[in-house]
Amino acid sequence: MTLDLLENGQMAKILNFNVTEKLLERFFSLGLSKFKTIKKVESSLGSSTILIECNRNSLMLRYDEAKSIEVERI
């Protein structure tokens, strides 16, 4: 499953990233990496952006970025 499919308030573990090397570096700089636990807080109107929490940080991802992150619900 991908991050965009999580319901608001659900937690998940990151399994994989299906992105370019440049975007992967950006995710790492934001603190996102494999096996990290994240929480989907909410989606914007129309789901164009998705707010997540990771390591006490709030991050806003674009829909296509969230769709490229494979997760497992916990």
Name the features.
74 residues, alpha+beta, five-stranded antiparallel β-sheet, 2 helices, 42% strand, globular
Count of β-strands: 5
Shape type: globular
Structural class: alpha+beta
Question: What is the percentage of strand-forming residues?
Answer: 35-45%
Q: Give the H and E element order.
A: EHEEEHE
For the residues shown, what is the average pLDDT?
Answer: 93
Give helix % range: 10-25%
Strand numbers in spatial order across the main sheet: 4-3-2-1-5
CA radius of gyration: 11 Å
Taking the alpha carbons of the first and last residues, their distance comes to 12 Å
Residue runs with pLDDT of under 50 for 5 or more positions: none
Summarize the main sheet: 5 strands, antiparallel
How many DSSP H or I helices?
Answer: 2
Describe the structure.
Keywords: Iron. Pfam families: FeoA. The chain is 19% helix and 42% strand. It is α+β, with helices and mostly antiparallel strands and 74 residues long. A five-stranded antiparallel sheet has the order 4-3-2-1-5. It starts with 10 loop residues before the first strand and ends with a strand.
